[in-house]
Structure to design on (227 residues):
């Protein structure tokens, strides 16, 4: 099955700093999502981005499907950005309807 | 539009008991997926339902089962609970679960503790 690797596993930033989170995947995908897990455990949708580039405020994401990676950019980080960021993919044509495969996440801590 | 809802939010059970968790998808969404999150194994796929049919299943023992109703609401059941079943159980819905309609939206989860 598809393997998903996220880096770095941990990241500590000062408020106001920028960061880049990376997600590598081992096969072609037709869904790639970035999530932020809040302290209560809920996964908040950040981007649905199987290919291309999207921006939403201070966050942006780029997926290069041909090279099998995606990047999540966080600019001017705030303490509320702290938490775990997950990348997840699926490969419908591999027979995996509704089956997101998650990376292990990047734990981000933003210090005031 | 209301998001995905899950009930109950917290559960405490003892070994050997069984438990039923409920998930109501976003209105109009017909695909419901279930995931288990533990510190050791991370987020793992349990199963996916579409139009009351299980289309896909993860690598979990038969003690884990689910179903979907005609209104797309879904339940999952875990029988003969083990200590290792303690986890956050997350439900997600999407419009169709297939290309073009497979963005998943998650509920707040049910935190199950098995004593």
């Amino acid at each position: 099955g598809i393997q998903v690797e996220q880096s770095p596993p941990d990241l500590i930033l000062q408020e106001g700093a920028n960061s880049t989170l990376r997600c590598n995947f081992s096969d072609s995908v037709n869904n790639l999502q970035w999530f932020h897990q809040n302290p209560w455990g809920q996964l908040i949708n950040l981007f649905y981005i199987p290919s291309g580039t999207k921006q939403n405020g201070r966050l942006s994401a780029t997926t290069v499907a041909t090279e099998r990676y995606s990047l999540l950019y966080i600019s001017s980080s705030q303490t509320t950005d702290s938490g775990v960021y997950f990348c997840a993919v699926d490969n419908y044509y591999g027979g995996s309807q509704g089956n997101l495969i998650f990376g292990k996440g990047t734990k981000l801590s933003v210090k005031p | 539009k209301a998001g995905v809802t899950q009930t109950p939010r917290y559960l405490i059970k003892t070994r050997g008991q069984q438990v039923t968790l409920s998930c109501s998808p976003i209105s109009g969404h017909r695909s419901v997926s279930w995931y288990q999150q533990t510190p050791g194994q991370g987020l793992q796929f349990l199963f996916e339902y579409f139009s009351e049919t299980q289309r896909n299943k993860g690598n979990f023992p038969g003690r884990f089962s689910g179903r979907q109703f005609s209104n797309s609401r879904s339940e999952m059941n875990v029988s003969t609970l083990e200590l290792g079943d303690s986890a956050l159980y997350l439900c997600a819905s999407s419009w169709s679960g297939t290309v073009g309609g497979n963005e998943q939206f998650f509920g707040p989860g049910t935190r199950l503790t098995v004593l």
